[in-house]
Design brief:
This protein is of the alpha+beta class and 644 residues long. Helix content is 43%, strand content 15%. Helix 9 (321-335) crosses helix 24, helix 10 packs parallel to helix 20 and helix 24 (577-586) packs across helix 27.
Length: 644
């Protein structure tokens, strides 16, 4: 819902033209109206591009309080806001709108920054407090809604997307350290690929005055230590508690003044959401499913079975390799991160079809894998490191079965040689499988580096740098290895890639708001406290969710293992347009101008593709997609080369 912009100048008046250019660059996030406010003294400005979902008539922003000493712009949704509105009226507040966004303004007046603990939803907002000359910018607990900031020429810029900062006049340049970190494991929560541009991390808020800027944490996962006493609930009681809490999260997210649809794949997560949502609506829900032209990656038949069971109106969105090629560059532009699969372009096309069908809001299943332990790499961690009450023979049989069933070798599970992970092992006492798998891919990527770039970072320990950002003793030490893996994944790959590539960016590209019931913080806090054995049991991932959602699932979905959402590899279809786009781009001037890679080495890799087996070509496709998106990134954002 919407795009937001804020400017705070230390001394001079802000440029209203810069503010308006930034807002205009976010038109795709808010096509229903664009407005701004500039303080009388001229040093502060707020801008808003609106996607109207709640309170279609009076919900324009920025919103001010009665005294006009507080102003706010909001992106996202606050759920159960009607109860908060009643509380505010009882406390003497007069509301000027019926929108959910206004509650944050008055809650801040009551509680200051502690208002965040009274907010439930996916959101990012910026509030200007004139009395205290303070800018308060906050991001939701999981980073569902993006929020970027930078300082340029003594002015603080804050926006929903990086492109808005550039539109306002911030220079666009590669950050080579972020590029190096991302090529090996992941850059930290505050970084982006752009030099001097940062994120407000999930569960943090930013406070800025004329003379000081700071980031402060207000929420974290807080997994229990293994020696903490767990709540004494039976397995069936946990299942019932989850069913009730998830049902409430879905029900709240169906509240809108426009129709709400649902993304539907062949997986457990979206099937559960559609099934629960159907119990709360009298009319059939519109469900949207991507259909790929490759049987191994197509889930249409399974999704159709679920749609029939729930009585949904089912819309199939066919996506070919040509479609992916035509839309890949636009998806990269909106995503503002590098891609490792064309699934982002597929989700971009899906959101386009949703909007063309007349929908602004959809329920989507992102986050379930991150809280319930849904990935193959987490099953491997469970088998290798959560060894209590496990028999060695059974563990080895299951590990062998997992290797044989791996759906994407080299992406979800380790494949081949890995880099030195000694610093991870020393700090954590074990190496999470997803880091081990990433390091196997990193070896292949490092072989493609330009000599100058390779020399610059030859002695860096990317894994030490990665762990340095975390409170290891406070958030990781003493926790179950699976919970540690979940925590690190959620603060890196999930944050930077899944939530950006497959969620907000490609949805808002077509003015569609995705709502994520699995990342309702009441659901997450319940699941965090559960024993790991309820998340993963043998080869069954997301066990407790599977059981809680059983009444809403087909037998096919209930018994099906996790299949990650991936588009078919371009390397399997060398004569189709997506792979032709890769070949033309990586052999051409775009790759030659990219400062990080040796084009001769890249061309040699392309020449070897016909001789590779299917497993190798699958893993190489992830690398080629990353190279392709880097070339597009540089061209579309007009990035200047960094000093290396």
């Amino acid at each position: 819902m919407c795009g937001i912009v804020a400017l705070l100048s230390k001394h001079e008046t802000i440029s209203e033209d810069s503010l308006k250019r930034a807002i205009a660059s976010l038109h795709h996030r808010g096509p229903d109206g664009q407005k701004s406010w500039v303080a009388p003294h001229g040093r502060v400005g707020l801008g808003h591009a609106r996607l109207s979902i709640i309170d279609l008539r009076t919900g324009d922003q920025p919103i001010a309080n009665e005294d006009e000493n507080l102003h706010i712009v909001v992106n996202g949704e606050f759920y159960d806001f009607e109860q908060t509105q009643r509380d505010l009226k009882r406390w003497g507040y007069r509301l000027s709108t019926n929108s959910d966004s206004e509650i944050a303004l008055h809650l801040y007046n009551e509680f200051g920054t502690q208002c965040l603990h009274h907010l439930r939803g996916e959101f990012a907002f910026v509030l200007w407090d004139e009395r205290n000359e303070l800018l308060f910018a906050a991001r939701d607990r999981f980073g569902i809604k993006p929020l970027y900031w930078t300082v340029h020429n003594d002015t603080l810029y804050v926006a929903s997307e990086v492109k808005a900062l550039f539109a306002a006049g911030v220079p666009a340049q590669w950050d080579p350290e972020s590029f190096f970190q991302a090529s090996n494991v992941s850059f930290d929560q505050q970084r982006t690929f752009f030099q001097g541009v940062y994120q407000v991390p999930p569960g943090y808020f930013l406070l800025a005055s004329r003379y000081h800027t700071q980031l402060i944490s207000y929420w974290d996962f807080n997994y229990p230590r293994t020696d903490d006493p767990l709540p004494q609930y039976t397995e069936s009681e946990y299942i019932e508690k989850l069913r009730y809490t998830l049902d409430e999260a879905v029900r709240l997210r169906l509240r809108a003044d426009v129709p709400v649809g649902c993304y539907l794949s062949g997986g457990l997560d979206s099937s559960a959401l559609l099934g629960i949502a159907a119990t709360h609506t009298s009319e059939p829900i519109r469900a949207f499913t991507i259909s790929f032209d490759d049987a191994a990656y197509d889930e249409e038949a399974i999704a159709r079975e679920t749609a029939t069971r729930t009585g949904a109106n089912h819309q199939i969105i066919p996506v070919s390799q040509s479609d992916l090629a035509d839309n890949f560059a636009d998806a990269v532009w909106h995503g503002e991160v590098l891609f490792n699969n064309a699934s982002s372009a597929a989700k971009y096309l899906m959101s386009k079809a949703v909007r063309e069908a007349g929908y602004k809001v959809v329920l989507t299943g992102e986050g379930a894998d991150e809280i319930f332990g849904g990935y193959p790499h987490l099953r491997r961690d469970m088998l290798l490191y959560n060894t209590q009450r496990q028999e060695e023979d059974t563990v080895q049989q299951l590990l062998s079965l997992q290797r044989n069933n791996a759906v994407s070798s080299g992406f979800m599970l380790p494949d081949g040689a890995v880099m030195s992970l000694a610093s991870i092992k020393r700090t954590l006492g074990f190496v999470p499988t997803w880091i081990e798998a990433n390091s196997a891919t990193s070896i292949k990527v490092c072989a493609l580096y330009a000599p100058e770039f390779a020399a610059k970072f030859a002695h860096r320990d990317a894994y030490r740098i990665f762990l340095n950002q975390f409170d290891v003793q406070g958030q990781l030490a003493g926790r179950s290895p699976v919970d540690q893996s979940l925590y690190l994944w959620s603060k890196s790959i999930f944050l930077h890639y899944i939530l950006r590539m497959l969620s907000d960016s490609v949805e808002m590209a077509h003015s569609v708001e995705g709502r994520l019931p699995f990342l309702d913080h009441h659901v997450v806090e319940l699941v965090c406290k559960m024993p790991v054995s309820l998340k993963i049991r043998g080869m069954t991932e997301k066990y407790v969710l599977r059981e809680a959602a059983r009444p809403f699932l087909t037998d096919t979905v209930y018994h099906r293992q996790k299949h990650p959402f991936l588009a078919p590899p371009s390397t399997f279809k060398p004569n189709e347009r997506l792979h032709e786009l890769i070949q033309d781009t990586l052999r051409g001037s775009a790759m030659a101008s990219l400062p990080f890679y040796n084009q001769a080495a890249v061309i040699a890799l392309l020449d070897e593709l016909p001789e590779m087996d299917d497993t190798t070509r699958t893993s190489i496709d992830f690398i080629l997609m990353r190279l392709l998106s880097a070339c597009i990134f540089q061209e579309r954002f007009g990035l200047t080369a960094p000093t290396i």
